[in-house]
Amino acid sequence: MYCLELEQLLAESPIILSTDMKIEDGDDTIKIFGQMLFVDGSLLYFFEYHALGELRKYRFHWQTRDGDLIARWDNAPHFTSMRTFPDHKHTPIGTLPSKQRRLCDVTGEIEQEIL
């Protein structure tokens, strides 16, 4: 169900020029990964790992066409004192608290920034 929701969202987005998305569907797991090119030339590299129907790991790295960081959302467990641990957002000015993200959440946030 989630994969169909993603495909529909990506097909209808006014900011996505192209998407290279791969889905690996296991017995109780799903991996979704790839990259997107946006109308402003920026790129998003993404990865989600779902197990038993729950999002377990994710990372979304959004950068300019020149490779400079715009934002990176992930749940790597290295900011243990952050109130939203393990979820956080890297920005050029530092690391901020963030809620758990899915690809559709991130593309929605990027759409607001670009439009």
Structural class: alpha+beta
Order of helices and strands: HEEEEEEEH
Mean pLDDT: 92
Spatially, the strands of the biggest sheet line up as: 1-2-3-4-5-6-7
Shape: globular
Radius of gyration, CA atoms, in whole angstroms: 14 Å
* Biggest sheet overview: 7 strands, antiparallel
Structure summary:
The chain is of the alpha+beta class and 115 residues long. It has two helices and seven strands; from the N terminus they run H-E-E-E-E-E-E-E-H. The protein has one domain (2-114).
Could you please describe the fold and organization of this structure?
The protein is of the alpha+beta class and about 120 residues long. The chain has one domain (about 1-115). The protein contains 2 helices and 7 strands, in the order αβββββββα. Strands 1-2-3-4-5-6-7 form a 7-stranded antiparallel sheet, covered by helices on one side. Strand 3 (about 45-50) and strand 4 form a beta hairpin. The longest helix has 12 residues, at about 105-115. The chain starts with a helix and ends with a helix. The model has no long low-confidence stretch (mean pLDDT about 90).
Secondary structure layout plus pairing:
Blueprint: H1 2-12, E1 16-25, E2 29-38, E3 43-51, E4 54-63, E5 69-74, E6 88-91, E7 94-97, H2 103-114
Antiparallel strand pairs: 1-2, 2-3, 3-4, 4-5, 5-6, 6-7
